[in-house]
Design goal:
The complex is a heterodimer. Chain A is of the alpha/beta class. Chain A is built from 16 helices and 12 strands. Classes of the chains: A alpha/beta, B alpha/beta.
């Protein structure tokens, strides 16, 4: 195995650890409760037939073992704190520590959502401040912070669209979605009762305007567009796209996943978008947490404002903020309470730490970084679309595939070089796609290490393709058999499986 | 800006290597008329100390240190410090979704443990990796029941959380799915007679919450029989997860939708929380959300992977079981650590303390007002009806830095001057006594 080209990572002694149930023993305790200061209750008498017999195989371990267990397994993870994630459209940027500190302040972390508004002014003020910032950033006129994630925001946005059109007389039947769209887009449209119609991209990787004009009619409620799109390309004819839709009474929905290319430089509300969602866990740095929590605020133009989920935040005559539930045209709640408030806090802290100049610089660095990578790798990997890249660039594995090396293999070999893979095989319009978004959080040094790694792998594809196809070689587990896992799913531990993990 | 790891010289060098004169060249694709020519209307760049000050001031205006007697879907339990110590590790909270299994075994194993513990607690065979929260989980469970049975209507108990029911309506409004509601009896439980009449051959599922919104534990077995008799599924929604420490799990259910917030998740003014769906193995392919499964590598080493992905949006797009992508993984990890800390004995002991506190409080409040919904077992919440409007009572309590029970007139006007009170292990006896005294004034 040729390791001499690998500069970013080295193999190192790494702790083994089984499942927590494999550590469990009756009588071990990880807790202690203070004594009860009210009379004890015989739960069997109190609950009768509703009393629980026992808690089965719930673990019994000590605090020391809990710390060891979770610390050890955490060291098996890659994370932003360790290095770059070149994942396209994920915007894996620095998760600032001050965001974690402020989110944990007692008055923000420990307050019940139903406590009186009189003593919740701090939280309401934070939500309003964030809302105001996001409105100016997006160029929109109304906003909800309720949705819990991007897909949830998409659903909310399409519900708004539906409600608006129904109030106009006809909710219509179809939503147009580009073939380059993220899977959540069509899944969302289906939940909202719309049929999905595919919209082709042109040879420049942008929306085919004549196709759009041909497909736009009174049955089409709107277009779900990501801009820049999933190829990292800005839809230069966005004004024409909006016009075609609006002329026939349709609306333009924008998936805001790629806002990291736009913040402070342009605003969707200015270029014709009617409703959009944001991903606070992408553009606004709230942490990914291994798969959430996220937050997906939805911003819209005034015409859609009456339909926003309830409650909305209002300022009362005495200057106090409150929740207004009197919203007869609202599409309804999309979740209980008010949204992922903890993420609102973090996103606002991010905006404040940056300020308007920091946000603009962030966007510029994000686009600069992506273009740097594009320039450095365009001789080694095929660039299927030559249009200018914004904050992300999409290559294909066409050159390497000639040696039997696919994008998925290159991604696995990149792991040996100390990086997390880029987004593999997406967008679908590029066969064998490598979708790369470095974000602004990467230094020249980290970018150069990435470029060197990708160049080395391209060389390896020529000289030793098997090395790549059998990668990764340096991880605790090598490629796992996902096919077998899906065929006979084992989705929980059982006591009979007490045999060792065969390390 | 201190988060950006570049010097001006770095930027200049990079632009040179790209062949650009200035950064503006890279923004040329944006049509000139849409390029922003002013600064964003957001605050100026702040020092870290200024950011902390800002939020500290907001936190102070957001009273903390009050005695809290609120439940109603969000529960005030002690959070062991070990939870934040662990999930604040960058390897957990700054990690991505574990699609690349080889370098995400930490996240994947934690979720596999979560799924296992949820199964143990709920009496179900398989659990997913989390939903956004209990309310959206309930809505998704209902939609799942429709897919499983091929039927297109549902009956939902009025004693289920009102906001959960609102979310269910939002999710089903464009699916051609009529939702019938079923009332409750004087003992707080769902009206079985009314329920039986409302379940038909077109009913995909009955949805109840247990303990329900009033704190009353439902007759899960009885409701299951009524549902199953007509070929409908039973969905049981659980808002107070700690109840599972001492209350019989809803093993007769077909789908359980649980809110995990009680398990070490901060109240946080309503979020982030974490829902989870659990069900029988035979229904797993219709279950939305991520699933972690065991797998082996070529040397037979055990590892974990995301599995059964053909259910999900990134594979099936418009035919997916749900559009959910990002879920609540870090919150689920908090819950996993909490469940591990308390474990088999601790969850029971803690639940017993909650039961005792609420029983004591209910007994005392009964001397000052009318305790509703007697005749069925409760966990840690109860409803008190008073002559005085609960809003006035609460204003009086607020002056003593006590947040009183949740007035029910907003959601259940038929109950008059009633309020929902919750007592957990964090309500000392003196505090309960003080609240009772103030109610009686």
């Amino acid at each position: 195995m040729s390791n001499k080209d690998i500069k970013k990572a080295t193999r190192h002694v790494n702790q083994n650890e089984g499942l927590i149930f494999e550590r469990s023993s009756p009588g071990k305790k990880g807790y202690r409760l203070p004594p009860l200061d009210v009379p004890e209750v015989d739960y069997r008498k109190a609950l009768g037939g509703a009393a629980r017999q026992d808690l089965g195989n719930m673990p019994e371990v000590s605090e020391m073992e809990i710390i060891r267990h979770f610390t050890r397994i955490s060291t098996w993870n890659y994370a932003i704190d360790l290095g770059m994630y070149p994942l396209g459209s994920c915007t894996m940027k620095y998760n600032a520590r001050v965001n974690e500190v402020v989110a944990r302040l007692n008055g923000l972390a420990e307050v019940h959502p139903y406590q009186p508004e009189k003593i919740s002014q701090g939280a309401l003020r934070i939500m309003k401040a964030l809302a105001d910032c996001l409105l100016d950033i997006t160029g929109m006129e109304a906003i909800t912070l309720q949705p819990a994630a991007g897909a949830h925001g998409e659903m909310t946005g399409i519900l708004l669209l539906h409600a608006y059109l129904r109030a106009q007389g006809n909710p219509r039947k179809k939503i147009l979605i580009p073939d380059s769209a993220h899977g959540t887009n069509p899944a969302t449209a289906a939940i909202c009762g719309y049929a999905v119609e595919n919209l082709k991209s042109n040879s420049h990787g942008m929306v085919d305007i004549s196709a759009l004009a041909a497909q736009m009619n009174d049955d089409v409620a709107g277009l779900m567009l990501t801009n820049p799109n999933t190829l990292g390309i800005f839809e230069q004819e966005i004004a024409k796209i909006a016009e075609i839709l609006h002329q026939k009474g349709g609306l333009l929905y924008m998936d805001g996943a790629n806002m990291n290319a736009l913040v402070g430089k342009t605003r969707p509300g200015d270029f014709g978008v009617d409703v959009m969602h944001l991903n606070l866990h992408k553009t606004f740095s709230t942490p990914h947490g291994g798969g959430g929590p996220g937050s997906g605020p939805v911003a819209c133009k005034k015409a859609l404002e009456p339909f926003l989920p309830k409650p909305v935040i209002v300022e009362k005559p005495d200057g106090m903020l409150g929740f207004d539930y009197n919203r007869p045209q609202s599409v309804g709640r999309v979740r209980m309470f008010y949204g992922n408030f903890g993420m609102h806090v973090r996103a606002l802290a991010y905006i404040m730490a940056n300020g308007y100049d920091g946000l603009r610089q962030t966007t510029e660095d994000a686009v600069l970084n992506a273009n740097y990578i594009r320039k450095k790798l365009e001789q080694d990997y095929e660039l299927p679309y030559k249009s200018a890249s914004m904050h992300e660039v999409v290559f294909s594995d066409r050159i390497q595939a000639q040696k039997g090396v696919k994008t998925g293999d290159i991604a696995k070999r990149l792991i040996d070089y100390g990086f997390h893979p880029y987004t593999v095989s997406f967008p679908l319009v590029v066969p064998g796609a490598l979708m790369i978004e470095p974000t602004e959080s990467e230094s020249v040094e980290e970018l150069d290490l990435f470029v060197d790694a990708m160049k080395a792998i391209a060389r390896e594809a020529e000289e030793d393709p098997d090395l790549i196809r059998s990668a990764p070689h340096s991880t605790r587990v090598s490629r796992l058999d996902e096919t077998a896992a899906a065929r006979k799913p084992v989705l929980r531990w059982r006591p009979a499986q007490a045999k060792s993990a065969n390390e | 800006m201190r988060y950006l790891p570049k010097s001006p010289a770095d930027r200049e060098q990079m632009l040179r290597e790209i062949g650009c004169k200035s950064i503006d060249d890279l923004f040329a694709p944006i049509p000139a008329e849409y390029r922003l020519k002013r600064d964003l209307k957001v605050p100026r760049q702040m020092a870290e100390s200024e950011v902390v000050d800002y939020f500290r001031e907001r936190a102070e205006a957001n009273a903390a240190g009050y005695a809290v007697f609120l439940g109603a879907g969000a529960y005030h339990h002690y959070r062991p410090v070990v939870i934040d110590a662990l999930i604040s590790r960058g390897e957990f909270f700054t990690a991505y979704t574990p699609y690349q299994a080889e370098i995400a075994q930490g996240t994947l194993q934690a979720i596999f443990e979560f799924q296992t513990m949820i199964c143990e607690l709920t009496g179900m065979e398989v659990a997913n990796a989390s939903m956004y929260d209990g309310s959206t989980g309930a809505a998704e469970a209902l939609l799942m029941a429709c897919r499983v049975t091929g039927r297109k209507s549902a009956v939902v108990a009025k004693s289920a959380h009102p906001e959960y029911r609102e979310v269910i309506r939002t999710y089903t409004q464009h699916q051609g799915l009529p939702i019938a509601e079923c009332g409750f009896l004087e003992n707080g439980r769902v009206d079985a007679g009314e329920l039986e009449k409302k379940i038909s051959d077109e009913t995909a599922c009955v949805l109840i919450q247990s303990p329900n919104f009033f704190g009353t534990i439902e007759d899960v077995a009885g409701v299951a029989e009524l549902a199953h008799k007509k070929g409908a599924l039973l969905v049981v929604s659980i808002a107070e997860a700690l109840s599972l420490g001492i209350v019989k799990p809803p093993a007769e259910a077909d789908i359980v939708s649980m809110e995990a917030q009680s398990f070490g998740v901060p109240l946080g003014f309503g979020g982030p929380y974490a829902g989870v769906l659990a069900t029988k193995e035979k229904f797993v392919r219709q279950m939305p959300g991520r699933l972690v499964g065991e797998a082996r590598d070529k040397d037979g080493r055990r590892g974990f992977v995301l599995t059964l992905s053909t259910r999900e949006q990134h594979i099936r797009r418009e035919k997916a079981t749900s559009n959910i992508c990002t879920n609540q993984a870090l919150i689920a990890t908090m819950a996993t650590i909490y469940m591990t800390i308390y474990g088999r004995e601790g969850l029971k002991e803690l639940a017993a303390q909650n039961l005792a506190k609420a029983a004591y409080a209910a007994g005392e409040f009964a001397k000052k007002g009318k305790l509703l919904f007697q005749g069925a077992p409760r966990f840690n919440e109860f409803v008190v009806q008073t002559k005085e409007d609960p809003h006035n009572i609460n204003s009086r309590l607020l002056e003593k830095r006590i947040v009183g029970g949740f007035p029910l007139s907003k959601f259940y006007p038929e109950l008059g001057n009633a309020a929902l009170w919750c007592c957990t292990e964090l309500n000392p006896k003196e505090q309960i006594d003080e609240a009772v005294k103030a109610v009686g004034q």
